[in-house]
Write a structure and sequence with these properties.
Structural class: alpha+beta
Helix content: 40-55%
Number of domains: 2
Order of helices and strands: EEEEEEEEEHEEHHEE
Radius of gyration: 45 Å
């Protein structure tokens, strides 16, 4: 913004004993400092108020501002590098000085109306070159500060947008992975049911085979006919083959359960990694706030006021 002319001593020269007399047609103002109601001295400055049109289509900016600058007057004219930015509202000035204050010597050029025409050109050049509109921005969010918005307010708005961006990514993640996880869980449940069925059938078959073997052995021991023994042996053989098949089916079902559990675990691990990445990326402390500089075009700038303004000092 530039240093305040009231905080430095840029003007050399002896103090005048009274208020300098200006030529007819030159207007002078007296800046009012709330922190210094009874100044002991006034120093000369140049008050400039401009109308500036700032436009930036990308950030949807289209605003007219009226910045005011107060530059110390030195022998060579206004020192714009030390100009004090007074804001874009009304400037607190008075038409008369405080009684009893002394005045610094007025540079010769400040008494010549032609000087103000030259200074108007230098004011335009300074505004175009050195006084762009600077707004905070976050490129990742395509977010730019508003004219008049404080930095704290922008940070709060950017943080809210950050949370919304995070939530949008979480929703997209859920839409992508939830169907896959649901499908894997359903497949695991079916595999578990299959394993339970195979385990139940295997147990029943083993019990049946035991009964048949027992009955056949008892029949042989108590003198059953040979045909009965042969038939019993045949039935035992069939039962044994069936039990073997069912044991193989059970092993296959158990392997399928393990495979389904592994696939579900893999999916859940992938989702957790994606969640961690989103949360790490969308953290408020990761906000990269940078200045967006918007410069006015020459045709969008005009000087509304340029006049001598006395600056009070202690």
């Amino acid at each position: 913004m530039g240093a305040s002319p009231v905080g430095a001593s840029p003007i050399a020269g002896a103090l005048a004993t009274g208020r300098p007399v200006l030529p007819s047609g030159l207007r002078e103002r007296f800046y009012v400092r709330g922190d210094l109601p009874r100044p002991s001295q006034y120093r000369p400055g140049l008050l400039c108020t401009a109308s500036v049109h700032y436009v930036d289509a990308k950030s949807e900016l289209d605003a007219w501002l009226t910045p005011s600058l107060l530059a110390p007057l030195v022998d060579d004219g206004p020192d714009w590098a030390q100009a004090w930015f007074l804001g874009t509202g009304e400037v607190p000035v008075a038409d008369a000085p405080v009684d009893g204050a002394q005045f610094a010597a007025l540079p010769g050029g400040a008494s010549r109306p032609a000087s103000y025409k030259t200074w108007e050109k230098s004011a335009l050049a300074h505004l175009l070159r050195d006084r762009p509109l600077v707004l905070p921005s976050v490129g990742e969010l395509s977010l730019v500060g508003k004219v008049g918005e404080s930095r704290d307010a922008f940070v709060a708005r950017a943080t809210h947008a950050l949370h919304e961006g995070r939530d949008d990514e979480l929703d997209a993640l859920a839409s992508k992975w939830q169907p896959k996880i649901d499908k894997a869980r359903d497949k695991l449940e079916r595999a578990k049911r299959k394993l339970a069925e195979e385990s139940s059938d295997g147990t029943a078959t083993m019990l049946t085979s035991g009964v048949e073997i027992g009955a056949t052995v008892l029949g042989a021991m108590f003198g059953g006919r040979r045909r009965s023994v042969s038939a019993g042996v045949s039935r035992v053989a069939r039962s044994a083959r069936s039990a073997a098949r069912q044991s193989a089916d059970k092993d296959a079902a158990a392997a399928e359960v393990k495979a389904c559990e592994a696939e579900l675990a893999r999916l859940e691990t992938s989702v957790k990694a994606a969640l961690d990445e989103i949360r790490a990326t969308w953290r408020p402390e990761n906000l990269q706030i940078v200045d967006k500089v918007v410069r006015a075009k020459k045709g969008d700038l005009r000087i509304e006021r340029l006049e001598l303004c006395w600056v009070p000092v202690a």
